[in-house]
């Protein structure tokens, strides 16, 4: 990949919360003196009963289980709100930027969030919700979504957020799987100027969900909805009747906090369960280490609350740290590709945290949209979700950040709760495309297909050798699936499903999902590497590479390429790109087929669904072969890909 190297900038080295030596010492202690380290780290939270035990997890079958701080008692919403009231009651906790740039932003102080969350919690209680009950949240990116999470946490109910872009069928499946009795939604959502009929989708979904007794509806747009008498309640009407105070429920550290279904890029969604103490500690600690949060900073994680990134880095991590977190209702390119940077200027944002898919989309529109804004307030630029192509990394660094903002590339998963491998801005020299080094307590290993641990500079399967506080605890309702999925491929270790390379300096480079590694004439190659080479070409906006059966090579390379705006898809360009990859990586990576694709099949969180691309490349194009496409953002792109298949 890239050999570029970006040392810690001088001002960061001097002023950061943690410098190189401090990070190295902290990491060493987290491994060598783990229990003492974690009990000390746990003191960053406010406990009703502080824990006396730290890690009691085991990855082997005989005593399998993940357990942290098991005798501690606390409440997550009290940690995110109440404990800040005395010192920062008037500080903004949440700043909300609406979809339309002409609408008014909203600001909620910690004191105001407290009142909103307490009233919301009292509404849930009045509707019969109790500790341990599951509550499904199907909401747009409005402040009430954050309030809803915290209200559930306050009363000890387990929330399951379903992304507002999912269909009624996907919603129903997730309600049934965790047996929710209550659903919280809004009349409508707003995205890119269009209304999303959330309440109508809930009505359709509930035809199949007899367990749901109550629907609480947030009035977000004022759009017309049908309210079912005896079932549906307006939040604002109920909240007005109830007290602005609700005592937080004492929760054991291992009581469930939430279920979140994974996005489904690799198959049937799993209900990932996170619990109270370890998760909150992990979200808050990594938020501080990765983003070097300082009082007064405006921090913006531009994810959706429907993804784990929204849970950990819009709500729980920042609020546990007393931060000001910005929530954005809309999409990055509405009304123009400058919007995201305009929002940065409008609210004087110091840290922005987004995804490679967003960066690639904005990059292809041209730099003038970025140049039209100031961005002087920016200090740090975060990324998560996929391997970031070095080309996109450099664009983010030089065009968006004008060379002065470290890039925080965080590798993690819904299952890991929060960041696992990531830089600390004052401590970590950066290499474009590498998520760098492990967070405290994280022991990554690279193993071969037999499970042999490989040392030094190497490449293979990324596993984690021991538990960390934010690890998922089970698959909801199917503990055996949890064990089978993550702990049997390489017994005694957590299997991430991702491939990785480790370089001579111990830096980790995620090469993509293990399923996406291709084997060409005996050479193993991460698809990410070929994609990055393609994206480096000036005509290419995005690329997705898969393997397909090849008589001679074993596997051949099939590349789907989306061109930049105004580029012509010609045979000439196809040849140029084949040559380009040969020079960039070597003849072994020569693509056997290049298909120009106006759009790629992506999940709602913007990740390319390679299993569909693999099927098309293999020539398996029946609906049955293509499998479940219900979590695709735009299922129609598949038809175009099938029609224009190469070879
Ligand atoms: P599913 O598990 O349902 O197929 P998913 O894996 O896309 O869905 P997430 O938990 O949101 O669901 O994503 C985690 C995955 O995203 C990681 O396993 C990895 O493949 C990829 N990923 C996340 N962040 C990074 C990063 N910084 N660099 C490289 N890959 C990343
Ligand atoms: Mg996954």
TrEMBL record:
Any GO BP? acetyl-CoA biosynthetic process from acetate
Please state every residue range assigned to the domain named AMP-dependent synthetase/ligase.
82-467
Taxonomic lineage of this organism?
A: Bacteria, Pseudomonadati, Pseudomonadota, Alphaproteobacteria, Sphingomonadales
Write out the entry's keywords from A to Z.
Acetylation, ATP-binding, Ligase, Magnesium, Metal-binding, Nucleotide-binding
Stated name of the protein: Acetyl-coenzyme A synthetase
What are the annotated GO cellular component locations? cytosol
Q: Which Pfam families match?
A: ACAS_N, AMP-binding, AMP-binding_C
Query: Which family does the entry's similarity section mention?
Result: Belongs to the ATP-dependent AMP-binding enzyme family.
